[in-house]
Specification:
- The protein has helices at about 5-20, 195, and strands spanning about 35-40, 45-50, 55-65, 65-80, 85-90, 95-100, 105-115, 115-120, 125-135, 140-155, 160, 180-185.
- By secondary structure, it is mainly beta.
- It has one domain (about 15-185): lipopolysaccharide transport protein A fold (Sandwich), CATH 2.60.450.
- It has a 6-stranded antiparallel barrel.
- A hairpin with a 5-residue loop joins strand 4 and strand 5.
- About 20% of the residues are buried.
Length: about 200
Amino acid sequence: MACKFCAAMRSRLLLPLFAALALLPAWAEKADRGKPLTIEADQPGTLDLIKQVVVFNGNVVVAQGSMAIRAERVEVRERPDGHRSATALGSAGKPANFRQKREGVDEFIEGHAERIEYDSRGDVVRFAGAAQVRRLRGGTPADEITGELITYDNGNETFSVQGAPAAAGSGASAPGGGRVRVVIQPKPEPPGAAASAPR
């Protein structure tokens, strides 16, 4: 027979947890913002109403429309001005992952890193630690960026990339001087363009 006290406590704990889901940011295209946000995790979550912090651990999956984040740990904070920040952490050998559809085009931004940070005030995503970000055009990789820190400014649609700090005695000039890599694929030709090109 189920314990009535336990059932009452569970329902009292779940209500604030569901209320906390509204604190999480909308990272997906504009149409996704009106869709329900779901969070799944292998371990129970915690909510601190005073500090406005929500934490989930253990194979966490956050999804809203076309947006998805997968990480070992996700922590979301709401600031007094109403803006939110979130941090997703990977585990040993398994980085945190992010995927988002770009507004108005058949393209996705996807990336992984040891740590992924989001700031809703500037709509900026930072991928830190063995980071890689790709732009997919119709499911095909279009561009790829690799570095120690990649910053994606969604509002301005820009990326910046930094390398790892130079090792002592390596001859590199300054911290952040480690190598980065960017691969930019040519745009596909429109159908029939090759046939109409002059020879």
